[in-house]
Design brief:
Blueprint lengths: L16 H5 L6 H15 L8 H12 L28 E4 L2 H5 L1 H16 L4 E2 L10 H5 L3 H18 L3 E4 L2 H10 L8 E4 H10 L12 E4 L13 H8 L5 E4 L27 H12 L3 E4 L2 H13 L7 E4 H8 L1
């Protein structure tokens, strides 16, 4: 406990690789988060974790982690045929914080909406009524804030008549599916990679163009290792003509974390300690022209490493929806 103010407490990305490998079933993530809750209680943070104070403030005041105005949460859809959700709709599309406010990730939200419209899906969004899912801030030890965000979302979902929720982020998927049931509610949760697989299999998407690229696929920790969704995104990508599909040296259950989980996406990491840089090098080693994934944190971390490594002309980072949007 004397090390409660040290850096080590905050290095874990909650990727799940330790508990998956541990022969004694040690709960590393739960233990680490419990210690972080104590640090939160005493408001003790090392230098790299101090941004969490402003993140918490943004979540409390605006319902998102990027200091975006709540009233502009649905602005990513401006100019598109994206209606407000109503109870008679098939699906609520919940883009999450980064696709709602981050300039790079807004492209993913727009690609998703474009695909849903072309597939004839009856969907809508909540816009400013949507709040952060709370998954990542919970992993930093801010339990009370997580509970507030979860209750706000649950009340909104129930009031709006939501039954089925489509998400862009594996972190939203994980917390809605595995953590919100603790509040005695159950919604049908679908990640976009699963839904794309369903649409392709049902013939609802006309993949009419070729995508002549060598691509490597990165398994996000919270989609793959935590929730065992490995095959659907691969099958979607393999259904696109022209793609040369490459596997990274560490994939599926062995996938290397991007470094953004557990709240690390909001903290500074030393340049030579970034998982994202290691992952990009693995992608380059395969000869891939593009590294494709389906997680806002992964894309954010990879885009940052692509700049710091000065390899912007050597590899491109794409979301799976951006690939599908380009071929339909």
């Amino acid at each position: 406990m004397t090390e409660i103010d040290g850096e080590d407490l905050w290095l874990c990305t909650t990727c799940g690789r330790c508990p998956e490998r541990c022969p004694r079933d040690v709960k590393q993530i739960e233990s680490g988060v419990a210690l972080r809750r104590m640090a939160n209680l005493y408001d003790v943070y090392p230098k790299t974790a101090k941004p969490l104070r402003s993140i918490r403030g943004s979540l409390i005041s605006e319902g998102n982690s990027l200091s975006g105005e709540r009233g502009k949460r649905g602005a990513w859809a401006d100019g598109m045929a994206v209606p407000a959700f109503s109870a008679d709709m098939e699906i609520l599309y919940y883009p999450g914080c980064y696709p709602s406010f981050d300039p790079r990730m807004k492209k993913v939200a727009r690609a998703t909406a474009d695909i849903l419209n072309k597939a004839g899906v009856n969907f809508g969004i909540l816009g400013e009524k949507e709040s952060c899912c709370g998954e990542s801030i919970r992993k930093t030890g801010a339990e009370e804030l997580f509970v507030k965000l979860a209750k706000d979302n649950i009340k909104t979902f129930i009031d709006q008549g939501v039954k089925k929720i489509l998400v862009s982020s594996p972190h939203c998927y994980h917390t809605f599916k595995n953590e919100y049931p603790d509040f005695m509610v159950h919604f049908e949760i679908v990640h976009i990679s699963q839904y794309l697989f369903e649409l392709v299999k049902a013939g609802r998407l006309d993949i009419s163009k070729a995508y002549e690229k060598k691509i490597a696929y990165h398994d996000p920790c919270y989609l793959g290792r935590h929730n065992k969704i490995f095959d659907e995104p691969r099958e979607v990508l393999k259904s696109v003509p022209g793609i040369e599909f490459l596997e990274l040296s560490e994939s599926r259950m062995e996938s290397l974390c991007c470094g953004g989980g557990g709240g690390r996406v909001w903290m500074e990491t030393e340049k030579d300690e970034r998982f994202g840089a290691l992952r990009l090098q693995q992608a380059l080693d395969t000869g891939a022209e593009e590294l494709v994934t389906c997680c806002p944190y992964c894309i954010t971390m990879f885009e940052d490493s692509r700049i710091t490594m000065e390899i912007e002309d050597k590899i491109v980072i794409k979301d799976i929806t951006e690939i599908i949007q380009a071929v339909i």
